[in-house]
Write a structure and sequence with these properties.
Layout (H helix, E strand, L loop, with lengths): L1 H9 L16 H16 L2 E8 L11 E9 L4 E7 L5 E7 L2 E6 L1 H7 L4 H8 L4 E5 L3 H8 L3 H9 L9 E2 L3 E3 L2 E10 L2 E8 L6 E8 L2 E8 L15 E3 H10 L1
Parallel strand pairs: 6-13
Antiparallel strand pairs: 1-2, 1-12, 2-3, 3-4, 4-5, 5-6, 7-9, 8-9, 9-10, 10-11, 11-12
Helix pairs in contact: 2-6, 3-4
């Protein structure tokens, strides 16, 4: 469910990256879009930040309102997910098939019914829940780390219905970028591509029709942090499942 939200937030926006015949009358915009799309699709790793302020973030607490993740093609990742509707925050670390998550009190209260959420939050306070990708409870979070799936979706995107328009060079978070703007299903989409070669996607912004979402990308091909939580700060997921059966 978390991965679905990530794909709807990031991949649907990257449809703007797909080349279209209509963009042929602006080869500069097309060249920038094509190269940026390929560099994102071919990246060995990337750091992304998602912020979703759209109306649909209120439809469920399991949908992330924001995320800050470093992830790579081997399925490793490290970062934080913040759920919508006061659904709390979860830190996540994944190395290979091993997964750690550390939810805060608000997350437990949103996930565990009644007043038992406080009990579970206190029991596992400041501790990481540890398991593998085969554990059903951790699988959804582990799927968030699948950069390969994200890149596959970028590669399979349909052509956008309108031509891309390149704006004047500007600065975004200290980096010179070109804004490429267009429309898709009633949404205004702007993709910021780094002005210097290799051209890379720096940020994608979607607005309109109840959508207000941005995704930034940086640290292309930089290693994902390898530090994992120490055993003394971790609890096996089986213990969590045992405790949840008691509440």
């Amino acid at each position: 469910m978390v991965m679905t939200a990530l794909l709807s937030a990031a991949v649907s926006a990257t449809l703007l990256l797909a080349p279209s015949a209509a963009a042929a009358d602006d080869p500069s915009a097309r060249q920038l879009a094509d190269e940026a799309r390929e560099n994102l699709r071919d990246a060995e790793s990337v750091h992304l930040k998602l912020t979703d302020r759209g109306k649909d973030t209120s439809t469920g607490r399991t949908r992330p309102a924001s995320m800050d993740l470093a992830l790579d093609r081997d399925g490793n990742c490290a970062g934080t997910l913040k759920m919508a509707r006061h659904g709390g925050t979860v830190e996540i670390v994944k190395r290979g098939k091993q997964v750690w998550m550390k939810p805060d009190t608000a997350f437990w209260k949103a996930q565990v019914p009644g007043g038992q959420g406080d009990e579970v939050a206190e029991l596992f306070k400041n501790r990481w829940i540890h398991g593998s990708t085969s554990d059903a409870m951790l699988k959804g979070l582990a799927d968030t780390c699948d950069l390969d799936s994200l890149q596959d979706d970028i590669g399979s995107g349909d052509d956008p219905p309108t031509a891309l328009k390149r704006g004047e060079k500007t600065e975004r978070d200290g980096t010179d970028v070109y804004p490429l703007s267009g429309k898709d299903e009633g949404k205004n989409i702007t993709m910021y591509v780094t002005a210097d070669s290799p051209h890379q996607v720096a940020e994608i912004v979607q607005r309109g029709g109840g959508t207000d979402r941005s995704v930034t990308f940086d640290d292309y091909d930089e290693p994902v942090p390898t530090r994992t939580p120490p055993p003394e700060d971790s609890v096996d997921v089986d213990k969590l499942q045992d405790e949840l059966q008691k509440v």
